[in-house]
Amino acid sequence: MLTIHDSLTFEKNDFDITAYGEVLLDMISREEAPLKECANFTRYFGGSPANVLVNMQRLENKTAFISRVGKDEFGEYLTEILEKEGVNLDCLQHDQEEGTPIIFVNKSKETPSWLAYRGADINIEITEKIYSKIDNSSIFFTGSFILSKNPARANAIKAVEHAVKKNKLFAFDPSFRAILWPEGNKGSEIIRELLAQADFIKPSLDDAYHLYGQDHPENYLKKYHNDGAKIVILTLGKDGLLLSDGKNEPVHIPVFSEKVVDVTGAGDSFWSGFLTGILKGLPIIEAAKLGNAVAAFKIQGVGALSSVPPLMEIISYYDIQPIEGGNFNE
């Protein structure tokens, strides 16, 4: 059983992490206003799994992506960014009929509102090449957005089952929103089934509310653990996060920066720092601090891929201590 004080070791693999999910255009408003009042938008690279991979690539990890874009100019734009960042795209598919997905987001210092237009992402197909990519990775990551519609959902579940069977570390972002699911609130049952298979989950207070209803943070932690989650990272916005293994007392970690320009992609940047720490041999609690540190740099810029300093600069700036035997010098 994992505890927040454990550190993990991994066999040598071709890739540190493979992610399954969406890459899309984030159209972020220039105004800080309700979405219906926003008139001006700027195009940004987006999609939670894609953001996580690009940031992890920048933090010196080897990454691979399972996704699908439209055979259109927006798909070309996103693909070029992924290629430039060095993400492996052997499993990136191109849809001949459906377009590249787009999300409109309002610029916000708190949880933004958004409106999604789905497309090619829903049609991700499962292949032997995908299973092989998972086999050659240390971590498998997915989120809830891609699970909301079939056939991408059914194939995501197959990929998760394969990763778990192969004893890969499974990191899951359970950001359930009933409005995205044809089944509405019944979709929460699928999310809760995946919680039980995940090694790490990182819900926000909003995520917890949409899954369980109104409650206190400590009760949310208990509910996630009751559903089978092992390590729960409950993010609290400006109040930091709670880290829990269900056995020890939850640990509160405050935010590392009070300067906020835009929170779009803050959770994804946390994931990239946290999973980098896990791969580098940090204890889980120290990896969570590294996640906070990467997120602190992210929220000082606009868009999910605003610049992040080199890994060792972040480690030094926030005085995160690599443990003896870790692999930060590799």
TrEMBL record:
<keyword id="KW-0067">ATP-binding</keyword>
<keyword id="KW-0547">Nucleotide-binding</keyword>
<dbReference type="InterPro" id="IPR050306">
    <property type="entry name" value="PfkB_Carbo_kinase"/>
</dbReference>
<keyword id="KW-0418">Kinase</keyword>
<keyword id="KW-0808">Transferase</keyword>
<comment type="similarity">
    <text>Belongs to the carbohydrate kinase PfkB family.</text>
</comment>
<feature type="domain" description="Carbohydrate kinase PfkB">
    <location>
        <begin position="16"/>
        <end position="309"/>
    </location>
</feature>
<dbReference type="Pfam" id="PF00294">
    <property type="entry name" value="PfkB"/>
</dbReference>
<dbReference type="GO" id="GO:0005524">
    <property type="term" value="F:ATP binding"/>
</dbReference>
<dbReference type="InterPro" id="IPR002173">
    <property type="entry name" value="Carboh/pur_kinase_PfkB_CS"/>
</dbReference>
<protein>
    <submittedName>
        <fullName>Fructokinase</fullName>
    </submittedName>
</protein>
<dbReference type="GO" id="GO:0016301">
    <property type="term" value="F:kinase activity"/>
</dbReference>
<dbReference type="InterPro" id="IPR029056">
    <property type="entry name" value="Ribokinase-like"/>
</dbReference>
<dbReference type="InterPro" id="IPR011611">
    <property type="entry name" value="PfkB_dom"/>
</dbReference>
